[in-house]
Task: structure prediction
Amino acid sequence: MLYATGLRISEALRLAIRDVDLDGRTLFIGETKFFKSRWVPFSATLAEQLRIYLAARTNAVRVANPDDPFFISSYGKRCDYTRVARVFQVLVREAGINISAARRGRVRLHDFRHTFAAHCLLRWYRDGADLQAKLPLLATYLGHGNILATHVYLNATTELLREASQRFERAYGSLVVAPLEEIHRVLR
Result:
């Protein structure tokens, strides 16, 4: 869910059943960081996974009212961030994910949010979108007060740099006097 929506882990853990509209495929994220509320749309694929989870949750707890937490522990209580983060670290190790290259030697739940933002940008590059027009939309979607807060999430990945370079070449390649291969050779 974090990767598919770009939510903060705290936002996901605070969701109540009433905040999740599976038919409308939207999440209501209320009064979060920066005191903002927003509606977050999600895909049909995620809706199906959330339906499966909700059915299992309902079978385990039996009674659920709209104000109850959407995500609960095996004890039927709201999931706790510390426990979720610990379980995530165990799953990362068990999956054999190489974390030695990661910041401070660990992968964080918050990294899903960064990946979501970077993948949005990459998709927009590939679609030929006007990034200056799209960035305010991404900022709003992520619940930021302005686009400067969103820039933290836009890490320069190999794929993004490749797309930006190709876009530059298509738009301005004819203005470059020396062949790009020669420029790359000189810069090495």
About this structure: The two ends are 42 Å apart (CA to CA).
